[in-house]
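step: validate -> pass
step: tokenize input -> pass
step: predict -> running
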Amino acid sequence: MGAARHVNGQYDTERRLLAILFRRPELFALHQAELSEELFLDPDFRRVYRAMADAYRRDRRLTYTRVHQALGETARADSARTALLRITETPFVAAGEWEACLRILKDGARRRRMAEALHSALALLRDETERPAGELAAQIQQLVMRATATADDAAPRPVQELLDDAIQRLSDRRAGKPRPGVRTGFPAIDRILDGGFKPGDLIVLAAATSMGKTALALNWACNVMHTAHVLIFSLEMNDTDIIDRILISATPVHASSYVLGLDDAAYRRVLDRRAGLKGLRGAVVDRRGLTAAAIASLSRRYKMEHERLGLIIVDYLQLIQHVHERGQTHAVTVGNTVRSLRDLAGELDVPVLLLSQLSRNVSQRFDKRPQLSDLRDSGNIEEFADVVIFVHRPGYYEPENDDGLTEIIFAKQRRGARGKTVYLRFWPEQVRFTEVFADA
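step: predict -> pass
step: emit ->
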């Protein structure tokens, strides 16, 4: 009986909404993003809506005759014409009812989408018994998130509102107010990034082997973890190595002493510093061979459990298990992985820091300073990254003159200056960087 009342209520709401729409066709233009056939459960009302939309698109008017003709001469048209007659004979419906009817129908359509997503998920679990559970979990999450998305999630923003926001940003800059962003803890880097890593951005941190890119990423992570959660995907080192590096850099103690055994004074320094690190928030995933889909799945789950997720770090691109499709080149496959991670950044509204190796060609040139062309499969990586940062330590190639001076080169920024360089000093035995100065 309850189900019958629900169906009857749905039917009445659909009829009343179409009656309002018939009398006020301008609502088609005002609510175009919200109106669709999926709002209507009754098949005849769905056909009437389609005919009304077709008639309105042709000349921006609705009459009984035009809609009647738009229904065509199919076998089901007679039933739809009967529904059209009921709609036009509906007693006067106040225009104020429009919002209530539209809200009810949108809610019903969303519930049906969610039910369909769950049915599809169950079908996947029954039919795809040979696929890894991690891949299935990622696909099911995607089904559910698409089903729960609404048109309001991507609602257009008025130009005047955007202009007001732009003026406010200018005013904030003049007043010296900090820009929103995830701050790295290195002021010169944050200035070039105009306030730090921006939510939704994919930042590629690339370097040749042994330049210290993982150490720098962990330095940034440690600074961020004082105020927000950081999720670290380590596809090379295990979680104990990651935590050892964080502890060494935060104390700091000599890395070799940390491994071989600390004296009493150094051990006390570590214990004292451990007490100060109790506020760090984040987690480490050290599973190897993860796909981009698995990284996305774990990230979504972590974001659900920890709303204040400030940064995701993936170390590193070349160790991600890329999904090859028939006929695709390796460059396209890698590009799809990078694009998936950028989509993840936008979906979760969190910056994603993706570490990457450089091509070996850089070590064979006289000038070993990195260029965008040194990115492996650079066309794809460069295309999808919002920011590309290179780590270059000239002394690495001349060990006898290596004073740790390191160039942090901003090779690409979609919304900021490029070609800028920040100079840091790398202390390899303390696994940390300190700021020196930035160029003009």
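step: describe -> The chain has 16 helices and nine strands.
step: cleanup -> pass
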